[in-house]
Write a structure and sequence with these properties.
Layout lengths: L11 H7 L1 H20 L3 E2 L2 E2 L5 H7 L5 H13 L3 E4 L11 E4 L1 H8 L4 E3 L5 E3 L13
Antiparallel strand pairs: 1-2, 3-4, 5-6
Helix pairs in contact: 1-2, 2-4, 3-4
Amino acid sequence: MRRLDENHSFNIHIAAVVGIEEALILKEFYGWCHMKLSSKKGLILGVPFVYYSAAALADKFCYLKERSISRKLDALCRDGWMYSLVNNNKKYDRTRSYTVNFEKYDHAVQGLNYTISQNGEWISQFGEWISQNGEPY
């Protein structure tokens, strides 16, 4: 059941790199992974993995469709913001668990946004942002 008083937030530095909807999803997983990490429960090889289905996320974020969320999760994993794992005892169970790339997330939150240039090297955009009056932010 949806709560009407839920606040959805995201980090603007993350959203500038991955998009607003992806930033919402990423922050949701970041929070759950941090809770698991601090409680030291549900860790797989010391890494906090969280199961959150696209359907459950669609219920939480009522303005996003389940299929869209699935595509966004795939893109976040492909771009290295998250990692997924299928760790089930039954072969027919393809349930995915996810974790966040904490290092990449924390760098972006600090304003050290990284993008991949055309030649495949990481570039920091933070030093390239200039305000309208010509001074750095």
